[in-house]
Known about the structure:
Layout: H1 7-17, E1 23-27, E2 40-41, E3 51-52, E4 56-59, E5 71-77, E6 91-95, E7 107-110, E8 114-115, E9 121-124, E10 134-135, E11 146-148, H2 156-164, E12 169-173, E13 178-183, E14 187-188, E15 199-200, H3 202-213, E16 218-224, H4 228-238, E17 243-247, H5 258-264, E18 268-271, E19 283-287, E20 290-295, H6 299-317, E21 328-333, E22 344-353, E23 356-361, E24 378-382, E25 393-398
Parallel strand pairs: 5-6, 13-16, 13-17, 14-15, 17-20, 21-23
Antiparallel strand pairs: 1-12, 2-11, 3-10, 4-6, 4-7, 5-9, 8-9, 18-19, 19-20, 21-25, 22-23, 22-24, 24-25
Amino acid sequence: MPKLISVEEAFAILLREAGEGDLVSVELAEVLGHALAEDVRADRDFPPFDQARMDGFAVRAEDIGDAAQELAVIEYVPAGKMPSKAVARAQAVRIMTGAPVPVGADVVAPIEITASPAPERVRVLKALPPETHIARKGSDVKQGGLLLAVGSRIGPAEAGVLAAVGKAKVPIRRKPRVVVLGSGDEVVEPNATPAAMQIRNSNSYQLLAQAQSHGLEAEYLGIAPDDPHATRRMVERGLDADVLVTTGGVSAGDKDHLAGAFKDLGVEIFFDRVNVKPGKPTTFGRRGKTLVFGLPGNPVAALVCFHLFAMTAIRKRMGASDPLPRNFPLTLKGHAKAAGDRPTFRPVKLIVEQGATFVQALRWHGSGDLAGCSGADGFVLQPADAALDDGAVVSFYPLPAVL
Length: 403
């Protein structure tokens, strides 16, 4: 029987059991948000030639600094053209950013510090040391050098690097398809008018939004009613996906049928209780390659636990080198009262004062208060039975739409 485990133990289990997604190649234009499935190395020196880093004039350092000295402009070299002449004493080549630097030149003098007293003549009005505004061949990385390591998440800069080395098709681990299933007769769809004892289904839609904010394909299966046979059928359908995420119905109530459906359908459960608030009754299991997350019915618990646990497993399956949720230290502005006997993830917003970034706790009434998380930039981890004082250094876990 699974026992109450720590958040750290839960992370270890998720990393161990998540497995790897299918290895595929995607077009470069579709690679954003994936993780590389292999190292990427430079196919040639970068830059591949001595390169000008400014618009101006390629000259010899020993020829400039005397504002009265005129240099003969012997050639114009735009980007994409090779120079045909070497620079000798008292000569200059008009050059553009990115163009090859001609032999003999050891400085590119920016056009802003030059004057042209006559056609094909230039004066450089300021002395510059050798190598100014020149990137020598291979100075960024040599041919064969590592540019991107396996597991690197691909953002815009990484996509540009891949293009620069000719990776028109990029090997990645396929993003998993996520399905979301609500549960309970007390839950109705947002377009319905709830009875006095019912609530609208906020959980499924905020989970869909979370998945989509990570660039994942996410599908909504509907609400499983309080009927074991109907619940089993809907869970079985969800097990065709890569990741099944349910909310509610996994505790010990008479009408909590999801746990029974998991058991009947052969889902191996690795944990079903985590020492965290909100989110203690969080379940993680797997059937074959399908990951299964039974999240609590309280909406903030579902929000937090998808962010912490489901996304850790998904990033691991996608081959990320750093699948654990990002966090970093920030200073708390204001006070946060003690939240209970379990480590608590408390919603906060970022504030900037005098150029420094802080976090500030939101007014929040616990795991059912989803409205209290509106405007949250993320969460901070609050130790069990401990208040947080103004100026405390806390671990900040940003939500994906923020950082």
